[in-house]
Predict the structure.
Amino acid sequence: MKKKYLSRTIKILSFALAAFLIMTVTQIRGDHNKIRLDGFYMEEKNSLDVVLLGASEVYTAFSSSLAYDEYGFTSYPYAIEANYIDLFESQIKEIRNNQTPKVLLIEMNGALYDNKMKDKDAKLRRFTDSMPFSQNKIDTVNQFGNEEDKLSYYFPWIMYHGSKSAIGRFPDNIALHLRGNSALKGVSGKSKSVYKGKVIDVEGDTSKKDLPAETEEKLRSFLQYCKDNKFENVVFAKFPHRITKKKFYERFQMGNTMGDIIKEYGFDYLDFENNCKQVGLDYKEDFYNDDHMNIYGQQKFTKYLGKILVDKYGVEKSKLSEENKARWDSSAEYIQLYYEYFEKCHKEGKDTQLYETCGLMWELDKLKKQKNA
Amino acid sequence: MNYTSLNFILFVALTVLVYFLFPLKKQKWTVLLVASYVFYLFAGYKYVAFILFTTVSTYLFALWINRIGVKSKETLKLNKQTWDRDKKKKFKNSIKHRKRLVMALVLLVNFGILAFLKYYNFFAGSLNDVMGVFGIGFSAPTLKLFLPLGISFYTFQSMGYIVDVYREKVAPEKNIAKLALFVSFFPQIIQGPISFYDQLAHQLYEPHKFDFTRFKYGMELILWGFFKKLIIADRAVVAINTVTADYAAYNGTTLTFTILLYALQLYADFSGGIDISRGVAQIFGIDMVDNFKRPYFAKSINDYWRRWHITLGAWLKNYLFYPLAMSNLFINASKKMKGTKFGSTKAGAHIAKVLPTSIASLIVFLVVGIWHGANWKYVAFGIWNGGIIMISILLKPIFDWVLAKLKINAQSFAYGVFQMLRTFLVVLVGYVFDVAPNFAQAMNTFKLAFVDQSFSVGWSQISELGLDKFDYAIIIFAMIVVFVASVIQERHSSTTIREMLDRKPFALRGLVIFAGLMLVLVFGIYGPGYDPAAFVYMQF
């Protein structure tokens, strides 16, 4: 009798476990944010020299694989689309729990977002969906998550089940986990150059505009947190944007004010917004929209920023384990294939956003084989 | 606590655990009682007073009715020798009258509460409209009333028990806590089924041992309920709500489509919910009567109402239809008609014969309509259904004559399909009153269905009802699954699909159940970002 009940219990539990596993693996929000952050957690512990924190400006402007290829240091963008300042503290904890980078570079555009921004929950989930279970995750969910939906932050399939992105894109994530590390180190890009309107020249412009009270309060609170925790390796930055509208010019001016406040707390602030020419960026050729560089701008900016990290902050060539070195070397190879593939697509008139999907990796491997043949 | 919420699943799991581990075997029912009141408290503490009042009044009045009966029997026994036949008859009549008076009192109070909470504002509004027409400056105030959870269901169930005690069909329950459980049993409180005391009560009080087969069947039934509710009903309701929110903006094609979708959504919602209720009860070892028997396979509207919301139909048949049809008033009217010149004709004899049942049917369906909601459109819904039944009873000889003349084989498959489609169409007409926001809009829908059909406009409107092609594909797939299961069940009415499945090898059985589970988990509407529709019949 006992044996019979044991067998039945095992059967029921196996059913439940199988269902749970299938849901966990397949019903996810499949996009570049998920791939990037999952990739971060797959990096060897304490192996990154630089971590870049921020929003979409980071992963479109900076390629870790290219920086490794050029300067030999390892880096990773801990960045998600429309990442906002409220989440930075939790994200720094995540970074510090996994890595001890020489430089933690924080792109601060997320501090200037409108406080009434929509879909804050969706933005939060881009972060929590990849967070492993930890006290930091519990605190983040408790602080920012919807009270009624808390369980769905720990079991994202409750949120994403049945959605087309969950059904169509989970193989990308499975492939990433099968590879064991991110081949393209979270980069995302477009080759298209879109130029509309007239660019407002902000080269050397130091004019300022006051920050809204709530924005300034959040900024100061975050800076105080960094100061109290003696984060000496933190560097703040504002990556290049193309300014064509008055609204964005005002944001640029607020950026200047923000720079002064950051310096007030004793931190370095690298403003790339008002020295795009020095970076070598061409507004017509190197941006795919006003906020984001395309892959041509990405290559220029990565090399420029990489040099600053080496020259100014003493980031050196990484000393990696053999296995990890092989991964980074492979990544450096992939990023060149990535840019080549973009060229090929561009010539064929195809222009989409490319990140580490199954389809892209299959194309890159094909290209690699062709080259090796 | 919605039946499809995680809280409910955890609540049921905990109750099952406590129930089967409860050490005092004879007192196991107290676990169900406590669970039922905890469940009810989750809906709001202010509701508890109403269910408690119904329970206490039902308990006391049932004992009172019984006491009158017992005492009268004792008196009769004592005076058996001394009283003559007339005196005995007189005494019996006076006792019957007293019992009926007590019963009427408790029915009046309980149905009065229900009617007041549910219909006061409707009647006040209607009265004010009438007064306005006649220019009388009287205005009945409207009140902010709330409807306690499941009030219709527990009122009907407890009042059925009162009538059964009055009819001496069942003995009154002496333990008020046990009666409280019968009134409040949590799996049925939200939307029924409305159970009869002699069918349910003893099952509630018996100590049930854990039975794996029952557990398995219960879980499978719950899964089937979730399949219908979460995949079909809660998906389709998005489009229906979009239309009802701006009803006048849609053309005849879209409204026709919405009514069809509503037929599917209502069935999936209500029968899905009932399956969940019955499945939960089955785990505890309690068999609740089924409320549905594949209603869209019905071959007449009468047949449809025997298959749809079966327990409400059975309640009304027992406690309203028969008392009406068998009443002296109706029987005498029938006899009177038979005695007339018209009554001596063939048609007259038929009409005189079926008059009591046809008028009783109309009244019953008027009640069904009003039970559905406080709005004139529901009155129309009742008249439509009752009227069709009345006409079909009265004109039956004519229909039979037409069939014979046209040499149609009434037993043929094709005629059966025709009957089903015909009945479904009649049902759909009834649903128009349900979906339309009011009576005038319902009438306009009938007009638009004929004069405003444009597939291109309809198609563009349908594609903007909040569902995309993917959703419609899922609905169609799930509908096919439900249809196939219904056909199988219709053909094998002596056994359930779960029993049939149980006879298959484990691998196949496991695959079917696992596929069902995965379909619910993947394609079910739940979690954040969705607003899962409450069960349609919860509002009753």
Summary: The mean pLDDT of chain B is 90. Chain B touches chain A through 18 residues (CB under 8 Å). Residues 302-439 of chain B form one domain.
